[in-house]
Amino acid sequence: MSTKPSPTPPEIEVVDLSKSFAAVRALDRVSARFRAGRVHALLGENGAGKSTLVKCLMGYYRADAGHILVDGQQRVMLHPRDAHALGLGMVYQHFTLVPQMTVAENFLLGREHLPAIIDWGREHAALDAFMAKMPFRLDPRRLVATLAAGEKQKLEILKQLYLNRRFIVLDEPTSVLTPIEADEVLGEMRRLADARLLTVVFITHKLREVVRFAQDVSILRGGKLVAKIEVAASSEMSLAKIMFDAPASAEKTDRSSRASSRTTAPYLELTGIRAVGDRGTPAVMGASLSVRPGEIVGIAGVSGNGQKELVQILAGQRDRQAGTVRVGGHAFRGTHGELERWGVSLLIEEPLANAAVPTMSVMENLALRQFNRPPLALAGLVLKRRALRPFAQALIARYGIRGLASAPLQTLSGGNIQRTVLARELARAVRLLIMQNPCFGLDVAAAGEIRRQIIRVRNDGAAVLLISEDLDEVLELSDRVLVMAGGRISYETDRADADRYEIGRHMTQSMARLST
Amino acid sequence: MTGTFDLGWWGVLLAIVAGAIRVSTPYLLVSLGETLTEKSGRVNLGLEGTLVLGAMTAFATCYVTGSPWLGMLAAGLAGSALGLLHAIICNLPRVNDIAVGIALFIFGIGLAFFLGKPFIEPRAAMLPGLPFGNWSDNPAIRSAFEISPMFFVGIGLAIILEWGFKNTRWGLILRIAGESADAARAIGLSVHRIRTLATMAGGFLAGLGGGFLSLAYPGNWNEGLSSGQGLMAIALVIFARWSPLRCFYASLLFGGASAIGPAVQTVGISEGYYLFYAAPYVLTLGLLIYSSSRTRTLTGAPSELSISR
Questions:
Q1: Size of the A and B interface in Cβ pairs below 8 Å
Q2: CATH, residue B15
Q3: Cβ–Cβ of A276/B302 closer than 8 Å?
Q4: Is residue A156 classed as helix, strand or coil in its secondary structure?
Q5: How far apart are CA A207 and CA B177, in angstroms?
Q6: Is the pLDDT of residue A24 over 80?
Q7: Which of A191, A366, B43, B231 has the most Cβ atoms closer than 10 angstroms to its Cβ?
Q8: Domain with B92 in it
Q9: How far B283 CA lies from chain A's nearest CA (Å)?
């Protein structure tokens, strides 16, 4: 902790900042001012240049043109160390914590000058004293792997404060938090800024957070700064208009009013499912649920509460210790034959790693469900390569996949990989669709498109089980909302009665018991 | 092993204990070296080659200069050189550390055999042993408790490493490279440099292990000297779950198992004793099966290792 405390937190101004990657102009003459002691929101869709802008501030990228002023002085940031020395710090969307180390060790790691031999007695005393002054606290002796997502986010922020960073950039800080945690974290940042201890910049997609916690808003689109607004001076509606070039409600997906009847027999039925996770500790602890035809059941929950293992059981990727899975009234083990017979389609999270072959072409990946049947195969044995291309082309056109049929799947963008796997899964008669974080990492347009497909499948009479860490997504799509916490389904509510805070409360409830 | 007859079956126990102390030293040094390397996030499977090359280098250096300590130093440096080679190749993009390790395993042995041919016959000066058995008149006990200083060096290293991983700057830096390369880069560390140094240090220790083989026990140089001890030491790291102190206990266990064969032979069992020579290999297999599981991943494994990803 070498930097001397200054009376006010840093103020940063960027002037005509430009940055290109190959042919793409990621930042195009952007000028903005982040005033000291204020909370600043940075909005824009994926690829709008938000990350590039803050990475230029942090010394990860060097801008091609333009300059950066810190407290009125021009500075050149060649390395993150240069930014750190000026008291600038960043909390990344994907945590940079080391899970198998303690909270205290993670604190120390960021320090510029670590002593050769660490006196843990002294360090712990110093950390305890530091924590006592902080708005939220964590036990320095805990292993980071045992922290919940919200606690990790808090640790990242505490770490920046511990390192005396007073200009803090948060990259989508609330994407992994429950609404209560998000309010708590952002509320605290606002309080620290109001006390003129911090200048805060946060990147977000969520209008609600901007309206509640930010004072200034900058909106980027296609690498250009399109608006600078003071929140106090504008309404939520006008913000949404500028953000998406359309009123907020237009983003909502149309759903036919046809809701499933209460009396229809469930198509998917899980009772008392138990399973252990990768570390051999219980992950799913007696989960029961059912999904009827023509209904979307959404499972909300903080990641690490057994969702991953539950989906793996349904996909036949994990053994269960107890419980039954019934599809269409029959016992189900997730074999290839059963998936086909009962019309079960799956979109598992991170499909490139979990549900597709990265080095095979788009065409081959599209055929993975049907390559052994006509029209793609002769007598279930010989693959008719000539039939493959038209089959794939039809799906590519229908689902708007941007990529060549012959290109290896791994060369496509995240959204197009997602579309490819979705197209493959929906290419046959679907009676049960199981989806896990289907829109994670996609931009607003791509996410909207995938959500429309999900609604279409439901309107066609299929049962849909949606497991998502994004509560907004669950609330938007589901007919019924369940909460998974501590390996169980801990809460259930109808779409009409769903209250985000009540759901959030149940999401965090039994989390303390589960450690990964 | 003269004079064991008057101790009877006690002699077997004594031989196993003495063997555990003697034979464990190379296991310990190699497994500590491998632990150090793996903590940085890289596997060096080439340590068997390093061990053999170290043995040859130590013996040759000692033969030429007359100083066993100079031999040990040369062995360590030869090990570091192989470690550096491993690290440089692995620093290239899209190179698999396991494949490089196997290549260097074969390379190290080949190089040692090629350069070591002239040294197979002669005898060189040995590392002196510390006489811990002087209290007894029995020559068997006296020879059993003549302990090499390298054994204590190994214990000291195990304690220092165990403490150092948690309590020193270098320890934290090493572990962050092994647990999360992204986090290491985010705070401005060069992961390649950390791993290069860790692989060289690991190679140095494995080289010392080789020097022990040719200059202390069994104390000569021939092509069958190691018989896979370098490979078993790597398996031992997994069993010890990347803890230097547990490496020490596991090494004693392996050393004891290796000593069963010779010990049984000394009490006059002449049939089937070859079966006992297989004990360390059976132990390796058994431990690997015991420590593996279908339902959970290895605990304690550095997250960046190619085997735990």
A1: 65
A2: 1.10.3470
A3: no
A4: helix
A5: 38
A6: no
A7: A366
A8: 4-291
A9: 24
| Residues on chain B touching A312 (C-beta within 8 angstroms) | none
Which of A100, A118, A276 is the closest to B168 by Cβ? A118
Ranges of chain B whose pLDDT falls below 50: 1-5
Indicate the angle between helix axes B229-239 and B9-39, nearest 10 degrees.
70
Interface-testing mutation among A79, A109, A359, with chain B (most B C-beta atoms within 10 A): A109
pLDDT band at A512 (very low <50, low <70, confident <90, very high): very low
Q: Where are the domains of chain A?
A: 12-248, 263-343+429-516, 351-424
Separation between Cα atoms, residue B19 and residue B262, nearest integer Å: 9
Q: Which residues contact A265 (CB under 8 A, 6 or more apart)?
A: A292, A329
Residue type, A89: G
Q: What is the CATH number of domain A12-248?
A: 3.40.50.300
- For A263-343+429-516, CATH number? 3.40.50.300
- Element of type H or E holding A465: strand A463-468
Tell me whether residues A118 and B299 touch, CB distance under 8 A. Answer: no
Backbone angles phi, psi at A464, to 5 degrees: -125, 130
- Any chain A CB within 8 A of the CB of B172? yes
Structure confidence at residue A250 (pLDDT): 37
3-state helix, strand, coil in chain A (%, to 5): 35, 25, 40
pLDDT at B4: 43
Contacts of residue B149, Cβ cutoff 8 Å, sequence gap at least 6: B127, B128, B129, B130
Sheet holding A167-171, edge to edge: A88-91, A167-171, A199-204, A39-43, A216-221, A224-230
Nearest residue of B to residue A276 by CA position? B295
Predicted TM-score of the model (pTM): 0.74
Whether residues A94 and B296 touch (CB distance < 8 A) is answered with: no
Confidence check on the interface: ipTM exceeds 0.90, yes or no: no
Angle at A443 between CA A437 and CA A448, to 5 degrees: 70
B307 in a structural domain:
no
Reading the block at residue A349, the tokens are: 């999270």
Chain B residues with CB-CB distance to A114 below 8 A: 169, 172
Cβ-defined contact of A118 to B167 (cutoff 8 Å): yes
Measured distance CA(A152)–CA(A91) in Å, rounded:
11
**Are the beta carbons of A319 and B175 separated by less than 8 Å?**
no
Angle between helices B97-116 and B47-65 (to 10 degrees): 30
Option in A118, A279, A280 nearest B169 (CB): A118
